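Design request, tokens follow.
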């Protein structure tokens, strides 16, 4: 809050609607647990709070995505190209 009691503007112009739409795309693609191990069901237990917290961190510039876990997608591990696994929050913000 500023001296006058008004909220400070966010560093980045990211709408709550954009975060909601990103979540909907992850859900439609049957997003699964990422490096943080949080499933869609767990994320949705506090959906409003999780999306608000994600939006707040993105808009304020304080969101730092967690590390990416590499998951091999082919049985031929010697030449397979790995796919990455991110947290649900990271997937939502990056789409």
């Amino acid at each position: 809050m500023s001296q006058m009691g008004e909220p400070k503007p966010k560093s980045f112009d990211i709408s709550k609607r954009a975060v909601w739409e990103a979540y909907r795309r992850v859900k439609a693609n049957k997003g699964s647990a990422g490096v943080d191990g949080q499933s869609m069901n767990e994320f949705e237990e506090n959906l409003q709070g999780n999306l608000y917290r994600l939006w707040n961190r993105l808009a304020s510039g304080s969101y730092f995505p967690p590390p990416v876990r590499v998951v091999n997608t082919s049985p031929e591990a010697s030449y397979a190209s790995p796919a990455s696994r991110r947290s649900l929050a990271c997937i939502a913000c990056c789409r």
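Comment from the thread starter after seeing the answer: thanks! The chain has a mean pLDDT of 76.
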